[in-house]
């Protein structure tokens, strides 16, 4: 990474931390929280979906594991640090199960298997009222008691920063090159000795861990969660769309995607009230047809061509 | 739970399964044969339901009469979708097809919600309250039987169309080898657009036939997309008969699951079967094992 890029990233991070000094409206802070939360989620997804090129459409399972994990492990009386560790472990267990089965599959079958698994988790959460509260839902403990919106916002910023740093480290490591090799051509990667299934599994475990933390943050903001809210396929779709919109396999893509998607859906919500998924659908169609590498990916491509 | 309760569930399951089968056959044409990963399948089915609903409320046509109109309309929608949206990304990865069709599905579902609202609708005509008795223990409701009968006829028609027409042969040639087929004089896009349209129409007809027995709302098709994939994989990918069989099987399994474990588990059981089949026998239950 060049020095000016590092400086820019640091400046962005510090400025994001200072935002609450200027923005005090609860609504605006919540929108900003969503943007950073989905940026973090998009970055986490990007490790599997972007760098390794494995289209996961079941990230709701890990997101829900985080939100439900926070509720359930707290109820069992664990201290907060243990709760956080356990909910991350729960998501990683899910990732192990999903990855173990579905990483042997390729192309559309992988995507289908991830959805199927997430839907099984979704149905289980609905049908085990003694554990999860079923459709009625479950109370999630508040992570913060004063300055709630500001604290959640700052947490989301820090989570985004951490996932960004992890992504940078991975994309420049041997592990990251393995992932990209698998994306470009799995057979060739296998032929040169990359243990594809293990490498893919590691990336999914990491991705699941960050997704679970974001899920816990999201659940705690609402204080009360139901299965359809944190485990639905809409969550999986939104996470994937954020990353794809900005540019899968790019560092800044998920951030750009989160800004564009969340602002578009806020504007759309205020105009049409319901049916805000329409904008997701239309954005997806536009991206696939006109910006197949996402906003950042296509912009980079254009700059490269101009330089030549 | 006595024997007749289970038998009743099996009978109901077969009736439901007949309609699933039609959705699955449509997907077998699109995904199994044409290899187009269609995540908008359930949304097209939902659109068919709304078309039948509008024809009922504004044209006073019951779905059993209006389904050919629905089929024609939705064939056109499918054909245009292929030509306008899928054809431009031809040759790109599955990844892109999945995202595009996912986008089409979301846009259709929420577009419908924008026009018709999120409310539940139901239609009513005299036949709906009729029941047939089979012996002393079993009853079947008339609309399910009629819907099943029509689905059977449409499904059989589709099968003969695929097996015994020139364009059906062209589709199967593409399924066998998509690189060689165009060299044999098959116009790839024309054939694909035709079968994509027909697959969409099959799902839409199933939707129209479900209208008398289902509540209608914008998200009604959501679960059918994944179910249709499940049927195609269980059926062994290229086989539209296999997909139809898998549809019947899913219908029965779902009904038995709801009977013994409760409604909410039914969908989960579908997916567990799906994951098991994908990991243990990827050629499907009804498919031939390939070397």
Gist of the model:
The complex is a heterodimer of chains A (308) and B (291). With 308 residues, chain A is mostly helical.
Low-confidence stretches of chain A at least 5 residues in length (pLDDT < 50)?
Answer: none
Number of strands of chain B: 2
Average pLDDT score of chain A: 88
Q: What is the number of E strands of chain A? A: 2
Euclidean distance between termini CA atoms of chain A: 22 Å
Shape of chain B: globular
Number of helices of chain B: 11
Order of helices and strands of chain B: HHHHEEHHHHHHH
Structural class of chain B: mainly alpha
Principal-axis shape of chain A equals globular
Radius of gyration based on Cα positions of chain B: 19 Å
Please, what is the average pLDDT of chain B? 88
Question: Largest interface: which pair?
Answer: A-B, 42 and 45 residues
Kindly state the percentage of residues in helix of chain B.
over 70%
Number of helices of chain A: 15
Classify the oligomer.
heterodimer
Alpha-carbon distance between the termini of chain B? 44 Å
């Amino acid at each position: 990474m060049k020095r000016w890029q590092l400086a820019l990233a640091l400046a962005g991070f510090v400025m994001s931390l200072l935002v609450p000094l200027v923005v005090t409206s609860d609504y605006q802070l919540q929108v900003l929280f969503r943007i950073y939360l989905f940026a973090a989620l998009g970055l986490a997804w990007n490790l599997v979906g972007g760098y390794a090129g494995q289209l996961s459409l079941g990230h709701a399972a890990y997101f829900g594991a985080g939100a439900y994990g926070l509720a359930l492990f707290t109820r069992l009386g664990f201290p907060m640090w243990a709760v956080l560790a356990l909910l991350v472990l729960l998501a990683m267990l899910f990732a192990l199960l999903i990855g173990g089965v579905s990483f042997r599959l390729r192309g559309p079958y992988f995507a289908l298997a991830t959805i199927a698994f997430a839907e099984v988790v979704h149905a289980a959460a609905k049908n085990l009222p003694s554990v999860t509260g079923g459709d009625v839902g479950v109370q999630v403990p508040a992570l913060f008691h004063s300055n709630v919106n500001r604290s959640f916002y700052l947490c989301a910023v820090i989570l985004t920063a951490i996932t960004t740093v992890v992504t940078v480290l991975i994309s420049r490591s041997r592990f990251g090159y393995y992932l990209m090799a698998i994306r470009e051509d799995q057979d060739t990667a296998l032929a040169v000795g990359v243990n594809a299934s293990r490498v893919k599994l590691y990336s999914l475990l990491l991705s699941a861990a960050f997704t679970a933390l974001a899920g816990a943050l999201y659940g705690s903001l609402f204080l009360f969660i139901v299965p359809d809210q944190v485990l639905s396929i809409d969550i999986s779709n939104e996470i994937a769309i954020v990353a794809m919109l900005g540019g899968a396999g790019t560092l800044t893509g998920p951030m750009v995607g989160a800004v564009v998607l969340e602002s578009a859906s806020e504007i759309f919500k205020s105009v049409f009230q319901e049916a805000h998924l329409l904008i997701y659908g239309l954005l997806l169609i536009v991206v696939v047809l006109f910006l197949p590498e996402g906003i950042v990916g296509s912009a980079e491509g254009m700059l490269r061509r101009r330089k030549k | 739970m006595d024997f007749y309760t289970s038998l009743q569930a099996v009978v109901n399951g077969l009736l439901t399964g007949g309609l699933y089968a039609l959705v699955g056959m449509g997907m077998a044409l699109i995904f199994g044969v044409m290899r187009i990963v269609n995540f908008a399948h359930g949304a097209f089915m939902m659109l068919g339901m709304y078309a039948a609903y509008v024809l009922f409320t504004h044209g006073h046509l019951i779905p059993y009469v209006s389904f050919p109109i629905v089929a024609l309309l939705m064939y056109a929608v499918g054909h245009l979708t292929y030509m306008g949206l899928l054809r431009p990304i031809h040759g790109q990865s599955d990844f892109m097809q999945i995202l595009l069709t996912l986008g089409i599905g979301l846009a259709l579902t929420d577009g419908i919600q924008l026009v018709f609202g999120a409310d539940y609708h139901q239609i009513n005509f005299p036949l709906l309250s009729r029941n047939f008795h089979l012996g002393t223990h079993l009853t079947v409701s008339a609309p399910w039987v009629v819907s099943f009968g029509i689905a059977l006829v449409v499904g059989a028609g589709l099968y003969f169309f695929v097996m015994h027409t020139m364009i059906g042969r062209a589709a199967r040639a593409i399924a066998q080898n998509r690189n060689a087929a165009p060299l044999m004089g098959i116009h790839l896009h024309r054939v694909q657009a035709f079968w994509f349209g027909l697959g969409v129409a099959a799902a839409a007809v199933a939707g129209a036939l479900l209208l008398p027995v289902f509540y209608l709302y914008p998200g009604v098709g959501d679960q059918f997309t994944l179910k249709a994939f499940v049927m195609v994989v269980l059926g062994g990918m290229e086989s539209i008969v296999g997909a139809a069989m898998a549809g019947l099987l899913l219908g029965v399994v779902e009904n038995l699951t709801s009977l013994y474990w409760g409604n909410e588990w039914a969908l989960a059981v579908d997916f567990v079967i799906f994951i098991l089949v994908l990991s243990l026998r990827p050629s499907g239950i009804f498919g031939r094992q390939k070397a």
